[in-house]
Design a protein that fits this description.
3 domains; 470 residues; Aspartate Aminotransferase, domain 2; 15 helices; seven-stranded mixed sheet; alpha/beta; 10 strands
C-alpha cells in the first residue's frame, strides 16, 4: 500500500478554503526555514487512503483480542458519549474552580470509589499510566523510609514472574532489585522470601493474581513477612480485573497500589496511550502524596511533588468513572466472576491440544507452555501466534512471563461470549493439527496480511520510524 506522500501530485488538494477577509501577517519568529513537505492529494484519494488504513487496523471492535495481562476488553460506547458531553469536553484545566464543579465532583467521587474498591485510604489521580503509577508508588515508599531516617532500606523484592515494568520502576527510584523465585504452584516461594528479607528490605512489588493468572494462597503470609522485616508492600493493579469486587489489596496487607483505568475500568488503551494509573495508599503514606489533592485532604507535609500536570488524564478517568457507575458494586463483582469463568472455560477447551504451564484453576488469564510443539514439531510460540492472525484473531501475549520459555498467555476478559471462546478453541485445534502434520506451513505465517513474517530482531533494533522520500 502506498503512503499518502507517495500518492502526492503537485497541485491537487482535498479542500478549498475561502479567501481571507483579514490582512495577512507573517510571524517571523515562527517561519519555517524550509517548505513543509506536505502531501498534495484529492479528497477522494484521501478518503480512500484512510479507509484502507482503517481496514488494516485490528482492535477489540474487530474480533477476539486475548493479550494476557493487558485486559483488552470491550470499551462501552456509553463511556464515549459521556466524555463528549459539552460540560466535560470543553472544560479547560486552568478555568476557575467555580466553573468546573462537575469535573471536580467526578474526580472526588472517583477517588472515593477507587478507595472502596482497593481498600486504600487515599487516592491520587495524577499518574498517567500503569508504569507511571508504579514509579509514583515506589517514590511514596522511598519517602516513607527517608522520613523515618531508615536510609539502609535500598532493596525492593520482585517475583521472577513479575511484569517487566516492576523492576524498572523500582530501579528508576534508586532501589536495588532482589528477585524472589516461584514455587511449584506458581506463587511466591515462601522459604526463598524468608531468606532474602532483612534490614535492607524497602518493600515488595507483587501482582495478585500473578502473571501466570494464579491467585497466591499465601498472600497474607507474604505481606506479613515483609511487614515484620520493616518493609512495605506495593500492589501492581494490572490484574485487578480478576478480583474487583471480590477482594481488596488493602485487605491482603498491601500499603499502596496502582490501578490501570485503561484496563480494569474499560477505557481504551489507544496504542500506548492515553492511559491513567491512579495510586492509592494507606493513611501512613498519605502525607507523601503528589499535590494538588482533590476531595478528602490528608496532611501533605512531605509531598513528593507533582508527577503530572494538573490532576491526571481526565477523559480517561471519566470513562472509568462511567464504567463504575454503570455497573455498580454488584456489576463490578460480576465482571470479575465472568472474567475468571471465561478464562477457565477457554483453558479447559484448549487442554485437548495444549499444556497449561501450571495445571490448576486460574483467575482471569492462563499461560500455555508449547515447549512440546517446539521440541517435537519445530513449531514455536511465535509460529502459533502468527498463524492465529491468518484465522482473523489477534495473537495472545508471547514469551511472557519469562519463567515459561514457550509461553502463550490468554486473557479472554469478561466481555467475550461462550460462542466466541468455542470458536477460538476450534481454531487453536486446527492450528495444532497443522503444526503436527505440516509444521513448515506455519513458519511462513501470516500469509493473509499486507506484510508477512518480518525479521523480529531487526524490526526491534532498527525500526523505520518515519518516511524517507526517495
Amino acid at each position: 500500500m502506498k503512503l499518502v506522500f507517495e500518492q502526492s501530485v503537485q497541485g491537487r488538494m482535498a479542500i478549498t478554503l475561502p479567501a481571507s477577509n483579514v490582512p495577512s501577517y507573517t510571524l517571523q519568529c515562527a517561519t519555517r526555514k524550509t517548505q513543509a513537505d506536505l502531501s498534495e492529494i484529492s479528497e477522494i484519494d484521501l478518503v480512500r487512503h484512510y479507509t484502507r488504513l482503517g481496514k488494516q487496523v485490528y482492535g477489540v471492535d474487530n474480533g477476539f483480542y486475548p493479550l494476557g495481562s493487558c485486559t483488552m476488553k470491550y470499551n462501552p460506547r456509553l463511556n464515549e458519549q459521556v466524555v463528549e458531553l459539552e460540560g466535560f469536553n470543553n472544560v479547560h484545566p486552568t478555568q476557575c474552580p467555580c466553573e468546573t464543579k462537575g469535573t471536580i465532583e467526578v474526580m472526588t467521587n472517583m477517588q472515593q470509589d477507587l478507595c472502596a474498591i482497593t481498600g486504600m485510604d487515599y487516592v491520587t489521580l495524577q499518574p498517567a499510566a500503569g508504569a507511571h503509577g508504579e514509579f509514583c508508588g515506589m517514590l511514596l515508599i522511598k519517602k516513607y523510609h527517608q522520613s523515618r531516617g531508615d536510609t539502609l532500606r535500598k532493596k525492593i523484592i520482585v517475583p521472577d514472574s513479575a511484569h517487566g515494568t516492576n523492576p524498572a520502576s523500582a530501579n528508576m527510584c534508586g532501589f536495588e532489585i532482589v528477585t524472589v523465585s516461584s514455587n511449584k504452584e506458581g506463587g511466591v516461594d515462601i522459604d526463598n522470601l524468608k531468606q532474602i528479607v532483612g534490614p535492607d528490605t524497602a518493600g515488595l512489588m507483587l501482582t495478585n493474581p500473578n502473571t501466570l493468572g494464579l491467585f497466591d494462597k499465601n498472600i497474607l503470609s507474604i505481606t506479613r513477612i515483609i511487614h515484620d522485616a520493616g518493609g512495605l508492600c506495593y500492589y501492581d493493579g494490572a490484574n485487578l480485573n480478576a478480583i474487583m469486587g471480590m477482594c481488596r489489596p488493602g485487605d491482603m496487607g498491601f500499603d499502596c497500589v496502582h490501578l490501570n483505568i485503561h484496563k480494569t475500568f474499560s477505557a481504551p488503551h489507544g496504542g500506548g496511550g492515553p492511559g491513567s494509573g491512579p495510586v492509592g495508599c494507606k493513611q501512613m503514606l498519605a502525607k507523601f502524596l503528589p499535590t494538588p489533592i482533590i476531595g478528602k485532604q490528608p496532611t501533605v507535609e512531605y509531598s513528593l511533588g507533582k508527577v503530572k500536570s494538573y490532576c491526571g488524564n481526565f477523559p480517561v478517568i471519566l470513562r472509568g468513572y462511567t464504567y463504575i457507575k454503570t455497573l455498580g458494586s454488584s456489576g463490578l463483582k460480576q465482571a470479575s466472576q465472568l472474567a475468571v469463568l471465561n478464562a477457565n472455560y477457554l483453558r479447559i477447551l484448549l487442554q485437548q491440544d495444549y499444556t497449561t504451564a501450571i495445571d490448576r484453576i486460574c483467575m482471569h488469564e492462563f499461560v500455555l507452555d508449547v515447549k512440546d510443539y517446539h521440541d517435537n514439531y519445530s513449531t514455536s510460540a511465535l509460529d502459533i501466534s502468527k498463524t492465529m492472525i491468518d484465522y482473523g484473531m489477534h495473537p495472545p501475549t508471547m514469551y511472557f512471563p519469562l519463567i515459561v520459555h514457550e509461553a502463550l498467555m490468554f486473557e479472554p476478559t469478561e466481555t467475550e461470549s461462550k460462542q466466541t471462546l468455542e470458536e477460538v478453541a476450534e481454531i487453536m485445534h486446527k492450528i495444532s493439527i497443522r503444526a503436527k502434520d505440516s509444521q513448515d506451513d506455519l513458519h511462513a505465517s501470516p500469509v493473509t496480511t499486507p506484510i508477512g513474517r518480518v525479521d523480529e530482531v531487526k524490526a526491534a533494533r532498527q525500526p523505520i520510524l518515519k518516511y524517507q522520500p526517495q
